[in-house]
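Write out this protein's structure.
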Amino acid sequence: MKLKSLFICQACGYSAPKWMGRCPDCNGWNTLAEETVTASPHTRISDSEIIPLMLDEIEYEKGERFLTGIGEFDRVLGGGVVPGSVVLIGGDPGIGKSTLLLQVAERITSGSRNVLYISGEESPSQIKIRSGRLNVSAKPIYILSETSIDDILEHLQKTMYGALIVDSIQTMFTSGISSAPGSVSQVREVASILMKYAKKNSIPVFIVGHVTKDGTIAGPRVLEHIVDTVLYFEGDRGHPYRILRSVKNRFGSTHEIGVFEMREGGLEEVVNPSSLFLSERTAGSAGSVVVTSLEGSRPILTEIQALVSSSPFGIPKRGAIGVDYNRLLLLVGVLDKRVGIHIQGQDIFVNVVGGLELSEPAIDLSIIAALTSSFREIPIDSSTVVFGEVGLAGEVRGVTSAEVRVKEAAKLGFKRCIIPERNANQISVNTVEVIGVSTVKNAIDIMFH
C-alpha cells in the first residue's frame, strides 16, 4: 500500500491535495490539517452471485429494550436501550456528560449486566473520586483507562460486557491510521470499529463526543450518520437545570427531551418540569406570561418574560434567549403593522425562564402577550396560559395537541387558557375556561380589557 498526504477539514471531512485557508465545503477558516492516509487498491467485484431478498422473506430477531432505571434518560432513547445500538452524547465541557453516563452505568448494573467504562481522559483514581461524590456503589462497573482501540478490542475478545461507555471518542485512536487522535480520519475509523462491535455482539455502546465552539459535535458529520442515536446535553453551567435532547434516533422519536437538575450528589431527574420552571414565578409582574410548549409527547409549562423599554440610542437593541431571534423580529413587525402597538423604536428583550430552548410556532401568541404587557405596564392574570401560532396577517393559527396542553395547565391549577379559535371547539376540559381567538388584536383585547 502507498502512503500519501491529504489536507482534511477537521469540521466537515472535506479533503484536498493541498492546503487552503478556507474549506470550500463548510466555509470554515483554518480547518484543513495535513493527514497521512493509505491508498488502498481497488477492490475486485466478486464473481459470486448476489441475490436480493424480498422484504417478507427477511427473518430477524426482535431485540428487546431494557430500561436503565433513569426515567428521563429512557424517555429520550425512545423507551429504553436497544441491544446493539450506538448512542452518541455531546455537550459543552463540564455540562455533566461523564456524570450522567456514570450514573447510567450504575443503573444498568442493577439489571444483572456488567459495564466497561473506557476513559481516555481520566485515570481510574479520578473516576473513583467522582463515583464517591455521586454515591455510585461498588457494582460490576469495570474501569479501563486506555486510548488505543486495538488494545481495547483485544481485551473485549477475552471478556464480554453488557454495555460499553467510551469517554471520549476524540481521545481514541487506531494504529492502522497514522494521523493524530481526534483527527477526522481517526474519529471516523474508531466510530466504525465500535459500531461493528456493537452490532456483531448486540451490546449497546455509549460514546461521549466533544463539541465545537458553535455547539455541534466535533469531527466529521459522518460520525453522526454512523451512530444510531445522537443526544445533546444542554444547559448553562451557572444554572442547575440540564436538558437531554434527541436530534437523531433510529429507534424512537427525535422530539423527546429529558430534564435533570444538577446537585451535589449528581444529576437528579425532574419528573414534573412544569412545576419546576414555574416555581419562582412572581405573580402580578408585567411582561410575564405562561405558555404550554410541546416537547415530543410531553407538554411543559414555562414562563416567557419580555422587557420593552425606551432606547437611549439611535438604533434600538434586540435580545432573544430561548426563542428564535428572527421570529421575535417578525412578531414585533406584526404588533406594529396589524395591531398598532408601535414598539419598533424600543429596546426589546425576550427570555425563556429555566434555560429552555423553545422553537415551535405555538409560542408566538405568548411572546406577543408578554411584549404588550411590558410595553403597557399591565400584568397578565397569573392564572392564564397563552399559546397559538401567529401569521403575518395578524391571524392566530391552530396548533397540534391543544387538548394535551390545556390538560397540563389544568393539572397545575391554571383557570384560563387563551388559544386559537380553531382549537377551542375541540377542548373537552371543564375545569379551565377556554377562550378561542382568531386574531392577535382579538387576543390583546381579551387579555388587557
